[in-house]
Amino acid sequence: MPRLTKIYTRSGDEGNTSLGNRQRVAKNSARVEAYGTVDELNSLLGFSIAQKLTERLTKSLSAIQNELFHLGADLSYPEGDGKENKVPRIEQRHIDALEKLIDELNGELGPLENFILPGGSPGAASLQIARAVCRRAERNLVGLAENEQISPLAIAYLNRLSDALFVMSRYENLQKKVEEPLWDSRA
């Protein structure tokens, strides 16, 4: 585990930062944007947990937060460098766990008969915000992958996570006995 003894370094004051392999890049590079958005998503999950979600969701989201740190670590190393440094990575088992969670929660929900609007309980609304940021993170990774090699599991993980966050939001509303806000196509 890294030991942080000093929080500021001043090395980024001119708009550059170091990747995990110490390569200097602009703070607005596609790679930094990608792992920065993953960090933003992780922060939103922490905010969602603070909304007093059901215990089942809190437990799942705590595990997902650790997985997002794996993803951020993986993305901070250009492909090839992470393996030599034994950086944690997203694995197929993480995607499988998300699919299992989606299936379990969806089994307790009624069928989705209409589009729903983000909202409902505070916890469900925060999960919908996290879902939207997750989709942005996924788009950032797709853009990064057009020019640099990244793990294909990274994109699949975020795709599945956004689905999980949608289902979690619905589950949270169900558990809090808050009706899902439905889209009124005639409004």
Count of alpha/pi helices:
6
Strand % is under 5%
The averaged pLDDT comes out at 89
Question: What is the makeup of the main sheet?
Answer: 2 strands, antiparallel
Main sheet strand line-up: 1-2
Structural class: mainly alpha
CATH architecture: Up-down Bundle
Low-confidence stretches: none
Which outline best applies? Answer: elongated
CATH homologous superfamily label: Cobalamin adenosyltransferase-like
Per CATH, the class reads Mainly Alpha
Evaluate the radius of gyration: 18 Å
- CATH topology call: Hypothetical Protein Ta1238, Chain: A
Question: How does this structure look, described?
Answer:
With about 190 residues, this protein is mostly helical. The chain has a single domain, classed as Cobalamin adenosyltransferase-like (Hypothetical Protein Ta1238, Chain: A), CATH 1.20.1200.10. About 60% of the residues lie in helices and about 5% in strands. The chain has six helices and two strands. The chain has helices at about 30-50, 55-75, 80-85, 90-110, 120-145, 150-175; strands spanning about 15-20, 25. The protein has a two-stranded antiparallel sheet with strand order 1-2. A hairpin with a 5-residue loop joins strand 1 (about 15-20) and strand 2. The longest helix is centred in the last third of the chain and has 26 residues, at about 120-145. It is elongated and about 50 Å long.
